[in-house]
Amino acid sequence: MRVYGYLLAYFPADGRGSDLVERQRGEVFRYADRSGLRLAEVLVEAPRRGTLPLASRDQGRRLLRSLSPGDAVITPGLDSMFPSARDALATVAALKADSVGLHMIELGCDVCREPNSRLVLGLLTALARAERSLEAEENRALKRHLASQGPHRGGPVPFGFDVVKGGLVPKPDEHEVLRRMIGLRNQGLGYGRIAQEVGLPESRVRAIFDRSDRLLGANPLRAQRLRDRRASPRSPSLSCSVNQAG
């Protein structure tokens, strides 16, 4: 049995990023010690890779290829490993099927172990369903808005889009980054922190949001949804409230 730690590095503007990485590393080692687990290696992912699914990240891909039945992973929390509930749901289900444990420090348990897995998978399924529904509605509203604008008439192309046959269409790689940026902004993060998370200059992030706000201003449905989401309080932290199996 091999046990791996997995961290997502974060480098704040005050230059204390290395301190935060070491703090997370210490939390992983302390959790392993309390749980009677011996760490073989701790993998640290670059912050700019945090917007990608785990299997598409450099260290995430290496981690998944190294795992064998009976192995375990320790990570600070969901947001350290996964950019979305859908990626979390698919990965947790795959790890469970391969008899690999996934210990999340913020939840205080192995989320692949019964009965914890039923609770966590149920929550992730609900969140993934909500994500798909919201994205589908936003995409429909955005397409209607773009169609109402007619052909692209020159000037800079908005981030997240490309010009095809004179019209704006979503550009998959940039569109995913744009979704991540909006999600981080809705969590209350500033431009500097968002820039670090997605690997773009802060000035570029500010310009993207400025142009997006003007675009959304002409799209009442999506603009109102974003205003409501920004005004709503954050969801309470989750924790495993069931006893682990012996």
Can you tell me the CATH superfamily of the largest domain?
Answer: Resolvase, N-terminal catalytic domain
Radius of gyration: 20 Å
- Helix count from the secondary structure assignment: 9
CATH topology-level fold name of the largest domain: Rossmann fold
**What is the CATH architecture term of the largest domain?**
3-Layer(aba) Sandwich
Secondary-structure element pattern, one letter each: EHEHEHHEEHEEHHHH
Our count of domains comes out at 2
Average predicted confidence as pLDDT: 75
Helicity level: 40-55%
Silhouette: globular
Strand content: 5-15%
Keywords: DNA recombination, DNA-binding
Organism: Enterovirga aerilata
Protein name: Recombinase family protein
Biased composition (Polar residues): 234-246
What does this structure look like?
- The two termini are 18 Å apart.
- A 5-stranded mixed β-sheet has the order 2-1-3-4-5, sandwiched between helices.
- The protein has 9 helices and 7 strands.
- It folds into 2 domains: 3-125, Resolvase, N-terminal catalytic domain (Rossmann fold, 3-Layer(aba) Sandwich); 130-231, Hect, E3 ligase catalytic domain fold.
- The model is unreliable at 215-223, 233-237 and 242-246 (pLDDT under 50).
- By secondary structure, it is an alpha/beta fold.
- It has helices at 17-34, 58-66, 78-81, 85-97, 116-148, 172-186, 191-198, 202-217, 220-231, and strands at residues 3-8, 39-45, 72-75, 101-104, 109-110, 161-164, 167-170.
- 52% of the residues lie in helices and 13% in strands.
